[in-house]
Write a structure and sequence with these properties.
alpha+beta; Outer membrane efflux proteins (OEP); four-stranded antiparallel β-sheet; 11 helices; 4 strands
Length: 470
């Protein structure tokens, strides 16, 4: 009968522990948001980089996914958070241990049982202990750990999204530098030919030395541009190698693969100038900040539970005997049950200070969540405008190059026919060189602004609903 009463009490406490008094608010705070499109933006996908249609970029992204160390670090943080969740979840359940032991002792002749003399003692017993979570302390600590796990998972997704964006932008920067280096080398070659021709004309008495020196000066300007571009290419290759996780030998002795030239990158599809309806679900940093906020709320409730008694049950059941041969007989059976209650009466304000600390951390998390949402919409607004305007700039720079090519051709005709000085040719050639470099910069800005937009809207990342609710 006593056992049934103990079991009944334990079951009642278990039911009560499932109805914890202190439960955190799991809803994100409401913020005034701008009007958004009611339909999901189809141009956003998990594999957004494939829209550039460059197999080399696809391979670099895959290499970064496999080898990048920042991503490996973030993934390890997820594993750590998952383990902490397991530790906190286990604390809510009863703990059962099994032990066995044997000893040989000599009883004191002046003690309680001097007649025992020298004797052996054997014991096999199972023990159980359980803290009854009436006030939700353990449940809230587990909830906080679960939110930490979700936050770490979203943070890893954010690291992954940022990594892929940085790989794409670095790769595009490399292709732009390749294009500018090619333009500079072509210009050097062209001006070497012009300088040689002007030298022959001067020696033949057709032109003055001034024209030769002007041609030589323009040649030196083009040559001076090459070393800076070569150095920039080398630095960018190294940066790209680090991003994709290349080993030191590969970084030093090899160069990253090249794919499409910068001017041939696919910019499709067109992107509307409105906000996607599920922006708050797409951004990993917003989801991470929300999970962190709810986790801090759970810790506030766990800290408040410290004001109330801690109730625990312990029990032992086994066999104990002085003779090993009679260890498993009915008479050797032993058991015990116990309940403990502990409640703070005076702790010098420790519990109150811990609650205040938890609430201060919650305020920090709330401010961080609001700031993250604000930054997200600011990022999207800027990225949408940059994406639209960069396309216009590329078109204008392309038209300028076409016009200057025609101007350069006409300037040469006028000079050859004696209608203008060589200075007019040099001005046209210099302007064309600068315009071609600027066109590459505009093409790079267009590509990187598209990447920035994909990153700003979250790149399609979202945890599966089953995982988010687990």
């Amino acid at each position: 009968m006593p056992k049934l009463k103990v079991l009944s009490v334990a079951c009642s406490l278990a039911l009560l522990s499932g109805c914890a008094l202190f439960q955190p608010d799991t809803q994100a705070p409401q913020m005034p948001l701008p009007a958004v499109s009611q339909t999901q933006a189809e141009w956003i996908s998990d594999s957004w980089w494939k829209q550039f249609d460059d197999p080399t970029l696809d391979q670099l992204i895959e290499a970064a996914h496999t080898n990048n160390q920042n991503l490996a670090f973030a993934s390890a943080r997820v594993d750590q958070a998952r383990a902490v969740l397991g530790i906190n979840s286990a604390a809510q359940l009863p703990r059962v241990d099994l032990g066995a032991g044997g000893s040989r002792q000599k009883a004191s002749e002046k003690g309680i049982s001097p007649a025992l003399g020298t004797y052996n003692e054997y014991q096999v017993a199972g023990s159980a202990s359980w803290e009854i979570d009436l006030w939700g302390k353990l449940a809230n600590l587990t909830e906080a750990a679960r939110r930490d796990y979700l936050s770490a998972t979203y943070n890893r997704d954010g690291v992954e999204l940022s990594l892929y964006a940085e790989v794409a932008q670095t790769y595009f920067n490399l292709r732009a530098l390749d294009a500018q280096l090619r333009i500079a080398n072509d210009t050097v070659k062209s001006r070497e030919e012009t300088y040689a021709l002007q030298t022959k004309r001067f020696k033949g008495g057709l032109i003055s030395e001034l024209d030769v020196r002007q041609a030589e000066s323009e040649l030196d300007i083009a040559r001076a541009a090459v070393p800076d571009l070569v150095s920039s290419v080398a630095r960018t290759e190294g940066a790209l190698g680090v991003l994709v996780g290349a080993d030191p030998k590969t970084i030093i002795e090899s160069t990253p693969a090249r794919g499409k030239p910068i001017e041939q990158l696919d910019r499709a599809p067109s992107i509307p100038a409105d906000l996607p309806s599920d922006l708050l679900l797409r951004r990993p940093d917003i989801q991470s900040a929300e999970a962190t906020l709810i986790g801090t709320r759970a810790r506030v409730e766990a800290a408040r539970a410290a004001y109330f008694p801690t109730i625990s049950l312990t029990g032992l059941f086994g066999v104990q005997s002085l003779a090993f041969g009679s260890l498993f007989t009915g008479a050797a059976k032993t058991w015990s049950f116990a309940g403990n209650l502990a409640m703070p009466l005076f702790d010098g304000g420790l519990t109150a200070a811990q609650v205040d600390q938890a609430r201060a951390v919650e305020k920090q998390a709330l401010a961080n969540y609001r700031l993250t949402v604000q930054q997200a919409f600011a990022d999207v607004r800027g990225a949408l405008v940059s994406n639209s305007e960069s396309t216009k700039k590329t078109k204008a720079q392309s038209d300028r190059v076409v016009a200057l090519q025609r101007q350069y051709k006409l300037a040469n005709l006028r000079y050859d026919n004696g209608y203008s000085s060589y200075l007019e040719v040099l001005d046209a050639e210099r302007s064309l060189f600068d315009a071609r470099l600027s066109l590459v910069d505009a093409q790079l800005a267009e590509a990187t602004s598209r990447v920035a937009l994909y990153k700003a809207v979250g790149g399609g990342w979202r945890l599966p609903d089953s995982q988010a609710k687990s």
